[in-house]
Write a structure and sequence with these properties.
Blueprint: E1 6-8, E2 11-13, H1 41-44, H2 56-66, H3 84-94
Antiparallel strand pairs: 1-2
Length: 111
């Protein structure tokens, strides 16, 4: 999976396949780097609002588009297969950093 930034119109978004490795049967790395480490804030917030059409956008986005020529070389690091111990380690790291809500059983028994 490539890590090249996604470009659509004037929008540049970081592509972070390392955040979903478990869904592809690979070990989930942690801690996960910020998407802003991959795409500078000023490139991430580009907008055409209030700007007339111009070729300036082609010049501005050219480095991001050109990066796709080497997309097959900008690959997410192979993390090895997903295993139960690696998943437990990931959860141990992740749970204190997020809110975990566990719902009770949705099924009730009539008795």
């Amino acid at each position: 999976m490539t890590t090249a930034a996604l470009v659509y119109d004037v929008a540049v978004e970081a592509h972070c396949p390392d955040r979903v490795m478990r869904q592809f049967g690979r070990r989930q790395p942690f801690p996960v780097s910020s998407a802003l480490d991959r795409v500078q804030r000023h490139d991430h917030s580009l907008s055409r609002a209030g700007h007339p059409f111009s070729t300036m956008w082609v010049t501005r986005l050219q480095p991001w588009v050109a990066a796709w020529d080497d997309a097959d070389e900008q690959l997410a690091e192979d993390t090895g297969p997903h295993t139960e111990p690696s998943f437990r380690a990931y959860l141990t790291w992740y749970e204190p950093k997020t809110r975990c809500d566990f719902a009770g059983s949705l099924c009730t028994t009539q008795g």
